[in-house]
Every structure is written in C-alpha cells, then in structure tokens.
Design a protein that fits this description.
about 35% strand; 4-stranded mixed sheet
C-alpha cells in the first residue's frame, strides 16, 4: 500500500509539473482593453506618466480588465540620449494613430485606450460591458504561442493576432538629454512584437519570437496579446499575463 501511494504521489507530481510547464492565458467573453503608452527616456515629462503605468502592477484589473503596453519611440534620440528600448517601428505605430485621428503631430507621453487617444489619465480602465469574444493563448516556453480567437456571435474576420513581449522592474540610468543623471523605472516595456493573420473561418494561428526579436533583457517578463481586424489598429480583444521566458 505504501509503495502504491508513493507511485500515485509521483504521478501527481509529474502531472503537476507538466501543467506548470505550459502557460495558458485567456480573456473572458467581455472586452478587455489594450492600454498603450508612447514614451521615451529622452522626454522629461515622461517619468510621471511611467510612474502611473508602473502603479498598474498592483491594480486588481490588470490582465482581466486591461492590458498595458509601453512603446518607446525614437524621435527623442536625436537630442543626445539614445533610448535603448526605442524602435523606429514604435514611432511608426504612433504616426499611424495620428493619421487615423487626422492629427498633425505626435508627442510623449501619450496614452491610447482601445485605439483612441486619452485626453485625461482619469479615464475608466475597467472592463466595458460588451462581448468581444474569447481570446486564448498557450505556450510551453513563453516564446512560441498558439493563439485562438472565438469572436462573439455574428462577428467575422479575417483577424490579425499580435504578441508583444514586455519587460518589467527595469531600472535605467540616463547619461544625457533631458533626464541626464536620473535613474528611470520602466514597466510593461515592449521588448519585441510579432503578428500573424488568422484567415476568415480559421480559429487559430501560431506566433514565435524570432532570434533577434527580443531587443533587451529584463528582470521580469510579461506578454500582451491582442487581436484586430486585418490591417487595422483598433484592438477587438486582449489578454496577457506574467511569464517565464525559457
């Protein structure tokens, strides 16, 4: 009897370890918002905005009601400090929003909630009362994801699935520019982003982090996943969570 119990215990432990090896993220049927911050280490007005962003780590709505992502733009780099998290593609993303809104300029810090610019940080980040469908994502290593989207009744694709790998608990000393001499704290920083299409009628797609896709390392990692209509910016549904990269 003792050996049987030991064997059963071993099976349970192996099963638990296997379950712990895979990460499964899933939204509810109600809409989860995507909150974007466009920021830069070269911008003196950005640290207070990033502090508000960092405070979201303790918010009960994190990952369930909203998913935060911080894009570091590169147009401040020319003023003496190159932000190591900045990419031209992130600036291009902000410019695409500006075109969508018929705006003649971009600036930092700038918050975008579900594809719309926020005029005030006091915006409601709680889950809207609408059904968007269930977005699911599974990974064994945090790098390769199988994305499944079951849209709400009557909603058709095709869709684009997006995966952004995020860094958190980052401290970054700045040696020049408007924030010279300061140590800046960053959370939910986009370190890599990939996308793939989900054809109309299909249920899922696979997205992997390429060898050069992770631009920097971080003390802690998370992932943000969202779907849009094909070739559009506005998110339809989102999910995310803390992960371990292997």
């Amino acid at each position: 009897m003792k050996s049987l119990l030991s064997a059963l215990g071993a099976v349970i432990l192996i099963t638990a370890a296997s379950m712990q090896g895979a990460t499964h993220l899933q939204s509810g049927p109600r809409h989860t918002s995507l909150l974007e911050l466009f920021t830069s280490e070269g911008c003196s007005s950005c640290p207070p905005a990033e502090a508000r962003f960092s405070a979201l780590k303790g918010d009960a709505g994190l990952w369930r009601s909203f998913v935060p992502v911080a894009f570091h733009v590169d147009y401040w780099d020319r003023l003496g400090w190159r932000d190591r998290y900045s990419l031209a593609s992130f600036t291009a993303r902000q410019n695409s929003y500006a075109q969508l809104w018929h705006s003649e300029s971009v600036y930092t810090p700038a918050f975008v909630l579900d594809g719309k610019g926020l005029k005030s940080w006091a915006a409601n980040l709680r889950q809207p009362n609408e059904n968007s469908g269930i977005l699911s994502a599974t990974s064994d290593d945090g790098r390769k994801w199988t994305i499944t989207f079951a849209p709400s009744s009557g909603t058709k694709g095709p869709w684009d699935a997006h995966v952004a790998w995020l860094g958190a608990d980052i401290s970054s000393p700045v040696g020049a520019g408007e924030n010279e001499g300061r140590k800046l704290e960053h959370d939910f920083v986009v370190l890599g982003i990939e996308q793939a299409s989900i054809p109309d009628g299909a249920k899922q797609t696979n997205i992997s982090l390429t060898n050069k896709g992770l631009t920097q390392t971080a003390p802690r990692y998370a992932v943000a996943i969202w779907v849009t209509r094909h070739d559009e910016l506005t998110p339809v549904q989102a999910t995310g969570g803390w992960i371990a990269l292997r």
